[in-house]
Design a protein that fits this description.
Elements (H helix, E strand, L loop, with lengths): L1 H17 L10 H14 L2 H17 L3 H9 L14 H13 L4 H13 L3 H5 L6 E2 L4 E5 L6 E5 L2 H14 L16
Antiparallel strand pairs: 1-2, 2-3
Helix pairs in contact: 1-3, 2-4, 3-4, 5-6, 6-8
Length: about 180
Amino acid sequence: TREAYGRVARGYLCFLESRGIVCLDDADGGTVLGFLAALSQRWARTSLFWAVSNFRPFLVFAGRPELVGAARLAGVRRPHPIAPILTDADHHRVIAACTRGTVSARDAAITLLAASTGLRACDIVDLRLADIDWRGRTICIVQHKTGNPLTLPMIDVLVSRLADYALNERPETGDDHVFVRQMAA
């Protein structure tokens, strides 16, 4: 993240220097718009959103709220909308499919982990057998993205489907990840 922020900040500072501006205090909203316009000539429209997202923290750090406002004026939008959350009815249908055995214990456990705990995909993929306290019905991990420790309770249906997967579907392996790939022989 720091590298991405730094790359855009350095690009902006080089842009300012190319315009004869050697002090950030002399920059104005027009330089922000000019910088973003210059980027849009080289970058795909979908990538420009990420550039603006990485640029904004630098402008905030520099204490230049008017430049942050100028970045907003550029009108760069997320290339795709954030997926909406499930409706209550859809949520109940997903849970029902996971409890009825409509899907495999593995798929049900992964789905229930995501739906009931809010874990990120990277944390589910990295989940280890030792992270699960079966008696305490909790999962204890260090989050991949933030590095923060996290203890999460497990709902009954999750415990059931996770145990079903671990005992009946999970292939024999020395790998301590909960969810392992199974390849056809």
